[in-house]
Design a protein that fits this description.
It is a single chain. By secondary structure, this protein is of the alpha+beta class. The chain is 39% helix and 34% strand. It has helices at 2-36, 69-83, 158-181, and strands at 43-45, 49-52, 55-56, 58-63, 86-90, 94-103, 106-117, 120-134, 141-146. Strands 4, 5, 6, 7, 8 and 9 form a six-stranded antiparallel beta sheet that branches. The protein is flat, with a radius of gyration of 28 Å.
Length: 188
């Protein structure tokens, strides 16, 4: 009887040791998988346009050393007035505009938001909308749809259209960053 109790205790300890090893192995596997996942994985529409929450969105926070909030506001407002049509919000903390780029037969409308703080700002370009009045083949076609849902783009091919959008928005963002970081010199 003592041998049976001893054997039962040994089995119980063996089971506990096995459970402990399985848990350690499982945790090590999970930890390894998490480490192998790309940290900045970003979805892209057709492997070209950046998506956040299934919407085409370009965003970044930019630090501008030794530039006040008021100066960032003035530079951003000047840039927006030059590059976009419609101001929606104009405050010292936030500027929101709408404007469009042209791709093939389409106008691609987007909303640009610039949030401003001392020494930094955050831009976001989103809410892309395809507006098209195609009369190229003798008939008229009206389109007004979110870019993410419209797949027959611009009369120039889908991939070419998306690359064209990406190039134009990237150029606009570069010009925004340059305009805000560069002090304007008034030679009058």
């Amino acid at each position: 009887m003592f041998a049976v109790i001893l054997k039962s205790t040994e089995n119980h300890q063996l089971i506990l040791i096995l459970k402990s090893e399985i848990m350690k192995t499982s945790l090590a596997l999970i930890f390894s998988l998490v480490l192998l996942m790309p940290i900045n994985a970003q979805e892209k529409l057709k492997d070209i346009l950046p998506l956040i929450n299934s919407k085409v969105t370009y965003t970044n926070i930019i630090t501008v050393d030794n530039v006040s909030k008021d100066e960032i506001y003035n530079r951003a407002k000047h840039w927006l007035a030059y590059n976009y049509d419609r101001f929606k919000i104009d405050s010292k903390d936030e500027l929101i505009c709408q404007g469009h780029i042209t791709v093939g037969y389409a106008q691609i409308w987007q909303t640009v938001t610039i949030k401003i703080k001392d020494g930094r700002y955050k831009y976001e370009v989103t809410n892309f909308q395809v507006v098209m009045h195609d009369v190229s083949n003798g008939s008229s076609m009206e389109v007004d749809a979110p870019l993410e849902k419209y797949h027959s783009l611009f009369g120039i091919g889908e991939k070419t259209g998306y690359k064209n959008i990406d190039n134009q928005i990237s150029e606009l963002i570069e010009s925004l960053e340059e305009a805000i970081k560069t002090e304007k010199v008034d030679n009058w």
